[in-house]
Amino acid sequence: MNAVHPLSNASEPGLMERLSVQHDRLNAALLATPEHEWRNQYHPDLSPMGWHYAHCHFIEAVWLHERILGEPPPARRDWHDLYFPEQSPKWRRGGRLPPRHSLLEWGRACQQHHLELLRAHPEVRRHPLLENDYLTGFLAQHHAMHLESLEQVRWFARLQHPEAGPVQTSETAHRPCNDWIECPGGEHIAGSDSITAFDNERGRHTVRLAPHAIRAHPVTNAEVAAFIEADGYHPGPHWDESGRAWLEQTGVTAPLGWGRRSDGTRVQTLPGGTQRLEPRAPAVGLSWFEATAYARWVGARLPHEHEWEHAAQAGCLAGTGQVWEWCANPFQPYPGFRPYPYDEYSLPWFDGKHYVLRGGSAWSDPLLTRTTLRNFFTPDKRHVFAGIRLARDL
Fold first, then answer.
1. Is the CATH code 3.30.70.120 the one for domain 180-393?
2. In the 8-state DSSP scheme, what is residue 375?
């Protein structure tokens, strides 16, 4: 673990309160999960809901007790080798969890104790990681990410048993839109030095943008439905070689969660249930392969993350924070990158196999929707609440 990192900004107000909010959300999520669901693994990439709850409190304990106060880990078989992801295969996690009432009781005790340490323990408060409450914000964001992952698990639980009865009619203010915003190009200062910025966001630096245009709104369900009706999911020139291989391997024919009723009605299953597909809403449940193929099909491309960030900070983008938006470029370090607060947060994923997503989703906490935050996944992932925003060269 690195001991020092330049944290230039003062503490953001309310970071302790934001961590407490995430604690409350974790408790509510576990309580709202049916007994028959919280131990189950619904997808190979995702852990059981109860594990996410336990892991968040475990991570707090590791940072505070082991890494800051130097205490040895508890002598328990279900400690490091269950809650450290690299030591516990996802398929083994659910069956090793304690009973839910014990888990909740332990979690609440951890929350109270850890907040007291963060607020008042002299040795904790003096540690470099608590400068400007950095660690407090880091933990709050870590929990927010796992809470979004928990919603992804809930999504797959719903997909196993989509409602067979009358579908809900969703209501949304989103409108299909084909408006393009032209950018003449020029310099953009990318990155952030905020106290809440992750290591991969840090290092503000100037990039030069070529002239381009970017869509004001994300691609809608109606637009993706037109792609499907035009046989867009059949291999063609709009699919590159890796995309065609993925398409043939998976047999995918629509975004994750889409279906049809016997009367021809298109429906969509989301974490909250099944509803009639809303044509005007941003499409969600798309891999990078699908997003790229759709963009080529309409004669456009995905934006580079710097183009996306420039437009977002200029206030040009509408509909952000509804779906994570795939960018064209792989996840790479910014100039002068230094891993922090530990090497494995970002460093292993600069492998050329992960692509950047921006903006946040309807299931993201506001902590994760800032314009500089860089999410990243491999191009085959469909469960990450991702959609499409288009760009093109000028």
1. no
2. E
